[in-house]
Design goal:
The complex is a heterodimer of chains A (168) and B (393). Chain A has 168 residues and is mainly alpha-helical. Chain A contains six helices and no strands. In chain A, helix 1 packs antiparallel against helix 2 and helix 2 runs antiparallel to helix 3. With 393 residues, chain B is mostly helical. Chain B has one domain.
């Protein structure tokens, strides 16, 4: 049962993620992104991490993608009109794809996987909180700071500064 | 009675789950339908008119007292309306994006029915005298699950508005998305003090809705100010309750936050192009959301299935000698809980027919400039208060 669910959710996640990339209609892409995120949330539930699953749904599927859709609708992008790729883009993406394939293959053939650890009890809320406020305090703060910088950047970029008038 | 219990325990767990789920839906839908009738009657009473009181199958007039009484209550209008939704033509306008147009009402129903699974609606005492919650799934992250799944409901409105390919529905969809995202923030922040309060220091930490009700059930004996043992949330967290209530009105798209529909300026908002049962699904989803929202409010702030502050369900069971009758006690707790939910929905209706609709900029201003700072200030106040009170426990 758990295996079947794992394969279902994994297929859902990967197939929808691929559809997000190759879809020409932005609204379709956003909808597939939601399904893909739901698949990831399902995988988290199978790992006994219900908290992560619901936070993922709440933040990404519930709010972030809703904002994406909001922007897509306001911009009213018409699907289909795409520029052909430049030569440099083609070469770069081919090289990138080849590197990825080589990396995955070498991982598959040469990596030594440790034996599966004994299953541990599902983490409690307290465990999450303690880890976030002790071991991972610095990464959390750094990520928060980066988000703040991104937000400030957007405000600066989108604000139309008045050109100071010449003092004559 | 024992034969029934044995038969039930012999069933496969999946079949048991299926039956339980169908039972909950079987209660939810008729109440939703009845609410639409009560809404019409309440609005009529508030505006000094009789409301629906005509429709009746002709042979029902021959039933002596019941016939005229049901006619005056308008019960048959409800049935006729329901039947009409199934029987009338189901139009599919030519200019819509068909896949999403058909998907949108279904997308509205899914979150509405999924959140029911994590809301406990009653409790009973087991053989050892412990309170056991009644619900489809008792998750330890209960409130988070409710928020996460109900936040997906916004896609129904956005997709309905966008796929209709016409101006008014589109405006309705855009307004709905902006409104729901704005008020979700205040709603989540307003709930945090509740969980700060109930999570004792050194405990495992929980977001379970059942634990919230447990924290609100205690008798007068052993009461102290620091833990507010047995008092209801609305008494010691009034600002949280107020912010949650306002955000709840906004999240369920009820007047005065009726931006998505706004029939005065947007025809019908996101569902302008919809008809018959597809429109009916939006309607049912709205009422289901309202009921689940009221249920969560009652669990968080109004003591869940406890009859009165300082009178927990366990004491009531003791007085009525129901301690060893789990089925009767469970039914009693469900009746108490449902009674509170219905009273709350009545409040929804009173507000709807009293307060006029806000303008769009007023909605945004209220959400971001008033409610959000209030929720953040409230959270800070209670965090400091609890930190100050804790050493005194």
């Amino acid at each position: 049962m758990a295996d079947l669910l794992f394969y279902t959710f994994a297929f859902l996640t990967l197939a929808c993620a691929a559809l997000v990339v190759i879809n020409k209609n932005a609204v379709n892409a956003a909808m597939f992104l939601i399904v893909s995120l739901v698949g990831v949330a399902g995988l988290f539930v199978l790992l006994d991490a219900a908290l992560l699953a619901f936070v993922l749904l709440l933040v990404y599927a519930g709010a972030v993608v809703a904002l994406f859709l909001f922007i897509i609708m306001l911009l009213d992008t018409t699907p289909g009109a795409m520029k052909p790729f430049k030569a440099a883009t083609m070469i770069a993406s081919t090289v990138g794809g080849a590197l990825l394939v080589v990396g995955v293959l070498s991982l598959y053939h040469r990596a030594q996987f440790p034996a599966a650890a004994a299953p541990v009890a599902a983490p409690t809320l307290k465990a999450y909180a303690e880890q976030l406020f002790t071991t991972y305090l610095l990464p959390v703060q750094v990520v928060g700071f980066m988000l703040l910088i991104a937000m400030l950047g957007v405000i600066v970029l989108s604000k139309k500064f008045a050109v100071p008038e010449d003092v004559s | 009675m024992n034969a029934v219990v044995n038969l039930w325990e012999g069933l496969h767990p999946l079949v048991q789950m299926l039956i339980k789920g169908l039972c909950v839906i079987g209660v939810l839908f008729p109440i939703g339908g009845a609410c639409s009738l009560v809404e019409r009657k309440v609005s009529a009473a508030m505006q000094g008119r009789p409301g629906p009181n005509r429709a009746m199958p002709f042979w029902f007039a021959w039933v002596p007292i019941l016939g005229p009484a049901l006619q005056r209550l308008g019960v048959f209008h409800l049935m006729a309306d329901g039947l009409k939704m199934f029987l009338k033509e189901d139009p599919l306008p030519g200019h819509v994006n068909k896949v999403y147009f058909l998907l949108a009402p279904v997308l509205g129903m899914i979150p509405a029915l999924t959140t029911v699974t994590v809301v406990p609606f009653g409790a009973y005492l087991d053989a050892a005298g412990h309170l056991v919650p009644l619900g489809l799934a008792n998750l330890d992250v209960g409130i988070l699950a409710v928020f996460a799944v109900s936040s997906l409901g916004v896609y129904s409105l956005i997709i309905a508005g966008w796929s209709s390919n016409s101006k008014y529905p589109f405006l309705g969809g855009v307004r709905a998305s902006a409104q729901l995202i704005s008020y979700e923030l205040s709603m989540t922040l307003s709930v945090l003090p509740v969980f700060l309060w109930i999570n004792a220091p050194g405990g495992e930490g929980t977001l379970s809705l059942f634990k919230v009700v447990q924290a609100q059930s205690g008798s007068w004996h052993g009461f102290n100010l620091a833990s507010a043992h047995g008092l209801w949330g609305i008494i010691y967290l009034p600002v949280s309750a107020l912010v949650f209530l306002v955000a709840l009105f906004a999240e369920t798209n009820r007047l005065p936050f009726d931006m998505a529909e706004g029939e005065a300026d947007l025809v019908g908002g996101f569902h302008t192009e919809y008809g018959s049962m597809k429109w009916g699904l939006f309607f049912v989803a709205e009422y289901s959301n309202m009921m689940i929202g009221s249920g969560v409010f009652i669990l968080l702030f109004l003591g869940g299935w406890n009859p009165l502050p300082w009178v927990p369900l366990a004491d009531l069971a003791h007085w009525l000698h129901l301690g060893h009758q789990p089925i009767l006690l469970g039914a009693l707790s469900i009746v108490i809980f449902l009674g509170k939910v219905l009273a709350f929905i009545f409040l929804f209706m009173l507000v709807r027919w009293t307060v006029p609709r806000f303008r769009y900029d007023q909605v945004m201003k209220l959400g971001w400039q008033k409610l959000l700072p209030l929720a953040i200030g409230n959270l800070l106040f209670y965090a400091l208060l609890i930190a100050w009170l804790q050493p005194k426990l």
